[in-house]
Design goal:
Largest sheet of chain C: none
Strand content of chain B: 5-15%
Distance between the termini of chain C: 12 Å
Number of strands of chain B: 6
Structural class of chain C: mainly alpha
Chains: A alpha/beta, B alpha/beta, C mainly alpha
Structural class of chain B: alpha/beta
Oligomer: heterotrimer
Number of helices of chain B: 11
Number of strands of chain C: 0
Radius of gyration of chain B: 23 Å
Largest sheet of chain B: 6 strands, parallel
Number of domains of chain B: 1
């Protein structure tokens, strides 16, 4: 077919990817040129500032847990970005921030994010490198360490933003037992029910990825969120059409085998 | 009547440490005094069993162990049962690990089943390749070129000197894959990068929490079946007629679940009483 | 400034696009980079970065000990544990070279490292995981309240799954479930109609019908199948649960795609600071 360096059976995916990317870019450009989009309010994100304010009033620190995976996971990067926004608030309100991490690279990235946030708020004196500190790579040793910090320091607010596994309920229940306000955000499907049960506010899946857009209110990020929603509508329409075509094809032979077209190997 | 209501209200605001104590008691007692509840295998477990039963004698099966001591009660009985089933049916077993802790778990399983129970010869019937770092890259390497990734086995013996490794160059040289998995990397990576692209059938044993994430792949036919948590492990033990730790744990899990349901019901009764009282006043 | 801003963004953009487009390009060098090298580079970076983390950990714990801050005893335990693990991993094998070579000593029985794993790490790891059993009970007790329709649906399906998934569910007869349904419906009718007579008649008729049907069919434990807990549990797992899981997976996948595109196009730069 004249494309020696291209995997033929992945062309559908390539075209889909460009279409999706173009949709995102269109909405980003539209937003950058002044277009306004409506974003529904997400209670969990509104509560972040309230939580920081509550901690300031009570004179207790904020505990921020950016997940237990490394920077190669998109959720961890999203968690570090939200940490940057939270750090701006803690700098503004002069609240202490405690960020125990499970990976060394996350420690460095989180430190830089916090340092930049404190500098932007004009409070570089308040930044201390040790506010972001490494505990351990091991999942349950990390959970034990964070639990110890919670029980000893009794933070007024606990935020869990990133990729979590089984330790999620251990962290959330301990946070509940010390009376802290808890806000969680994760795309780890299996842990969402635990956070919903034990935390005051939970950002589920895409809400967590959209958090950066909500907190920064930057037009390009808000445009990206709208683009994502448009892609989702397209996916839903594709699913419905595929069901109709496949049903016709299986029962009457009319049409074609959609699964062969859409299956990517 | 109001005395009964007050009792329910007290139960509704019980200190959680009492709940912990009761849970501890209902878990310990059935472990010490087994009840022996009947175990009924589900379809997903039966499919795993049937798939392994149908494999021709001498099939090459890749067993991937990715769990740590924390999920040992759920995953280890699965690994043990699968190994027993494979050795009973005279299959060749290749063991790999995507987690560093998995290597210890796999070694324990090999010691118990391959060495003590079946007395199988290493290098002829089974080989332990061990752990390699890299998460999903390890899966991709096994698919493309296993010998580039594994030059030595876990005992530092050269792969080329192991008779069983003759003719094994990549994932397509295997006939079946079983992944005993507790998280990332694990089942989903094996489906996405190995089993689905190559068409080699696979099954998995996962912790109860992960079943939700894995079930779409089972329903779509990308996996033949799944052993769902400790109940799944107990069902498999029942199918191979060899009871183990999963079966003995099911009594405790059954009673604990019932007690949790009871707590939920009592909590709701208290909730309704409180709501009615606050409506009145 | 260029090292802290433009160069990291350039690295992310170049490597991101190469990895993304590399999946579509059938060229051995690019395939090797995408499948092997890129991940291995990250693993090597992460392995060396662990030294930073370890030094940070030791620094903070030693400071706590030296200044005798509250809880400094725990820091002593942390430092001793750290040193013991380093010793067992790198310096003291505990057996001869003939029993286990360096490298293989981590899984060989009889070595100090294996002893540490079997008798210290494994029990502590299992203990932390076992906390979940208690926390699930207390969280369920606190959170599962019939506040509205969705909460009721969650509660009922949770109870069905919890009972149906374990062996005890298979010994609960479907007739018992039928009786429970009639009694629950009776409670609802009582709340709705507030008439004892109607409630009594409804419950009495319901129980009578079920009892007669039970005697007619001989009280089989798993029939009618629609009320047999393991059967209902399996249906919930295969259909509503998978539907919900799939939709969340698609949503999360789209979220990851959109977020990743923002990173590799340089639109989102907060991960290196503003």
């Amino acid at each position: 077919m004249g494309h020696p360096y291209l995997f033929e059976d992945r062309i559908v995916m390539l075209i889909t990817m460009f279409l999706m990317g173009s949709t995102l870019m269109y909405n980003v450009r539209y937003a950058q040129m002044g277009g306004e989009f409506y974003l529904r309010p997400i209670p969990g994100l509104k509560a972040v500032e309230e939580a920081v304010g509550r901690s300031t009033e009570m004179g207790r620190p904020i505990l921020y847990v950016p997940g237990i995976q490394d920077m190669d996971q998109v959720e961890t990067v999203a968690g570090v970005i939200v940490l940057g926004h939270v750090a701006k608030m803690t700098a503004r309100y002069e609240t202490s921030l405690n960020v125990p991490v499970s990976r060394s690279i996350v420690m460095k990235a989180a430190r830089e994010a916090c340092r930049e946030s404190y500098m932007i708020e004009g409070r570089p004196d308040m930044f201390n490198e040790d506010m972001v500190h490494y505990l351990t790579d091991d999942q349950f040793a990390y959970a034990a360490g964070v639990n110890g910090i919670m029980v000893r320091e009794k933070p007024a607010a606990c935020m869990y933003m990133g990729k979590f596994y089984a330790e999620s309920l251990i962290l959330a229940e301990t946070g509940n037992s010390i009376g802290a306000i808890q806000i969680a955000g994760t795309a780890s499907q299996a842990q969402i029910p635990f956070f919903v049960t034990a935390c005051d506010y939970t950002l589920i899946g895409e809400e967590f990825f959209a958090a950066s857009a909500y907190l920064s209110k930057k037009p390009e990020l808000i445009g990206g969120v709208r683009g994502q929603d448009m892609i989702k509508v397209a996916v839903i329409v594709t699913i419905i059409f595929s069901i109709i075509i496949m049903t016709l094809y299986d029962n009457t032979g009319i049409g074609f085998d959609v699964s062969k077209l859409l299956t990517i190997r | 009547m109001s005395k009964i209501q007050n009792t329910f209200l007290k139960i509704g605001s019980i200190d959680r440490r009492w709940i912990f104590l009761i849970i501890a008691a209902v878990v310990i007692v059935p472990l010490l005094i087994p009840v022996g509840l009947p175990i009924r295998p589900t379809d997903t477990t039966k499919n795993v069993y049937d798939s392994i039963e149908k494999l021709p004698v001498g099939s090459k099966v890749l067993l991937s162990v990715e769990y740590s001591p924390s999920t040992r009660p759920e995953n280890h009985p699965m690994t043990i049962s699968i190994l027993r089933h494979l050795f009973k049916n005279d299959h060749k077993v290749f063991i790999t690990c995507l987690w560093p802790d998995g290597q210890f778990m796999a070694q324990d399983a090999i010691n118990q089943v391959a060495k003590q129970e079946f007395n199988k010869t290493y290098g002829i019937v089974y080989v332990f390749l061990g752990f390699r770092p890299g998460n999903e890259a390890v899966v991709k390497d096994i698919v493309s070129n296993l010998r580039k990734l594994y030059t030595v086995d876990v005992y530092q013996k050269k792969i080329d000197e192991i008779p069983l490794m003759k003719g094994i160059n990549n994932f397509k040289d295997f006939d079946f894959l079983f992944s005993s998995s507790a998280g990332f990397p694990g089942t989903i990576e094996w489906v996405q990068y190995a089993s689905d692209p190559t068409g080699i059938p696979m099954a998995s044993g996962v912790t109860s929490i992960k079943v939700n994430e894995v079930m779409p792949y089972v329903q779509a036919g990308q996996m033949v079946g799944v052993l769902a948590g400790m109940p799944g492990a107990a069902e498999y033990e029942a199918l191979i007629n060899q009871k183990g730790s999963a079966t003995s744990g099911m009594d405790a899990q059954s009673v604990a679940h019932l007690v949790i349901v009871l707590f939920i019901i009592l909590g709701n009764v208290s909730f309704f009483i409180e709501r009615n009282r606050s409506k009145k006043y | 400034m260029i090292w802290k801003r433009q160069i990291p963004i350039l690295i992310v953009t170049v490597v991101g696009w190469t990895t993304l487009l590399g999946w579509f390009i059938d060229q051995p060098t690019i395939q090797e980079f995408v499948n092997d090298d890129a991940t291995q580079w990250f693993d090597i970076l992460a392995s060396f970065a662990i030294i930073l983390g370890a030094l940070n950990l030791i620094k903070l714990q030693v400071q706590k000990i030296l200044y005798q801050k509250p809880g400094w005893i725990y820091s002593v335990v942390a430092v001793m544990g750290f040193l013991f693990a380093i010793t067992a991993g790198f310096f003291v094998k505990g057996v001869d070279d003939s029993v286990a070579q360096w490298g293989a000593h981590v899984t060989t029985d009889g070595t100090l490292f294996k002893w540490m794993f079997d008798y210290m790490f494994s029990p502590m790891s299992a203990t932390m995981f076992s906390l979940l059993a208690f926390f699930v009970a207390s969280a369920s007790y606190r959170a599962f309240r019939i506040r509205n329709f969705e909460a009721t649906l969650l509660l009922v399906s949770g109870i069905i799954i919890m009972c149906g998934r374990v062996p005890i569910g298979s010994v609960i007869s479907s007739w018992f479930v039928l009786y429970l349904i009639v009694l629950s419906a009776g409670i609802y009718i009582n709340v709705w109609k507030k008439d004892m007579k109607t409630t009594f008649v409804f419950v009495a008729v319901g129980i009578s019908i079920i009892t007669i049907a039970g005697f007619m069919y001989g009280w089989p434990i798993d029939k009618p199948g629609i009320f047999y807990l393991p059967a209902i549990q399996e249906w919930i797992y295969y259909y509503p649960n998978v539907a919900g899981a799939r939709s969340i997976m698609i949503g999360i996948g789209l979220g990851i795609f959109a977020t990743s595109i923002r990173y590799i196009l340089g639109i989102e730069r907060s991960y290196i600071g503003e």
